[in-house]
């Protein structure tokens, strides 16, 4: 593509073509086979070629890419996709994200994009209002909960070492006072990864016993804290990735405050329970924490990638993240430079779809979205539990359902594989307390009662087929 053709007419042509492909995909989404149909080898054969010397025509490239989406992509935004905890972009979020790509703003500092800076500033305040967290907390828009946990724990590392008279940003960790890191036996892997990134490591993490639903035992935490002296960070969880269960956050918060420890809560999807009157009690006491991590690309249903880090001590947050350079035009006034709150220097304006979705749904709409997802999870659990040989392993308190078939790992895996191939819905497997299980996660705004019922029918059809019925 010659640069002299890089004009508005070319943009019109390519965007119109991409729009047609996108509309075709979205029209088919409610009824299409949810899983991918093509193998890696088939996709490689269709897409691999020597790098063109002169470049292919752009419209043909768009057609080529879009032409393989139906067979090569898993429909993660399908209303019957229940694998992992994956939302599906709402119409307004998708449209806002198109604008983000069109504007192509570097959201790192205010001077580059005042509009994006203000949109993210307002969205940050709305999130604190929605979750009823300290309104002066620091907020950063990151790629996902992995980096949200990293950001919050970086702030925690700064704060607990500062109290001990150590400047970790300037002096590093060599010679620093030892930080005790305490986490549940059921903490998410992203906590461990964040600790690796921060130089704190995972081998010395002190694990607290959890109960049958994966909740940290507060009594065991209190016993452990009584043995510790020095800087301490406790990591709790709002929404177990398998069961959806919440740690007893009020008890944990009171124990950590009494000990002078920093409490971080990984609320990748569970923090959104704070937005639902019917589920808010699950997160009782979460406001006692010092930092909170969540994803917007889960239950807020904005496009990937979109996570949020929130820290009560905004100065600790900013000090742990900020970077400066002589050539940058950085604000010292009320304007918001995103680089002060996130690990990235340059990044896309991922807070814009968050703003658009919050404004379009409002608090009532978000509450309805959470409640409907939880209702569909309960619907599926109750329908599956009525079948002989099917067992629900967890208390369905939120949007997660664990299912086991014939109390047998091989049968359970076979049902999962069969459902994925059948294509009505897509869900994955896990191991829960030593037993294989099917894991159903409901977090898409478009999932209806009919979607849930159709999916249950497909799951039971596969199971009955394996039983010869």
Automatic annotation (TrEMBL):
<protein>
    <submittedName>
        <fullName>Aminotransferase class V-fold PLP-dependent enzyme</fullName>
    </submittedName>
</protein>
<dbReference type="GO" id="GO:0008483">
    <property type="term" value="F:transaminase activity"/>
</dbReference>
<keyword id="KW-0032">Aminotransferase</keyword>
<dbReference type="InterPro" id="IPR002129">
    <property type="entry name" value="PyrdxlP-dep_de-COase"/>
</dbReference>
<dbReference type="InterPro" id="IPR015422">
    <property type="entry name" value="PyrdxlP-dep_Trfase_small"/>
</dbReference>
<keyword id="KW-0808">Transferase</keyword>
<keyword id="KW-0456">Lyase</keyword>
<dbReference type="InterPro" id="IPR015424">
    <property type="entry name" value="PyrdxlP-dep_Trfase"/>
</dbReference>
<dbReference type="InterPro" id="IPR010977">
    <property type="entry name" value="Aromatic_deC"/>
</dbReference>
<comment type="similarity">
    <text>Belongs to the group II decarboxylase family.</text>
</comment>
<keyword id="KW-0210">Decarboxylase</keyword>
<dbReference type="Pfam" id="PF00282">
    <property type="entry name" value="Pyridoxal_deC"/>
</dbReference>
<keyword id="KW-0663">Pyridoxal phosphate</keyword>
<dbReference type="InterPro" id="IPR015421">
    <property type="entry name" value="PyrdxlP-dep_Trfase_major"/>
</dbReference>
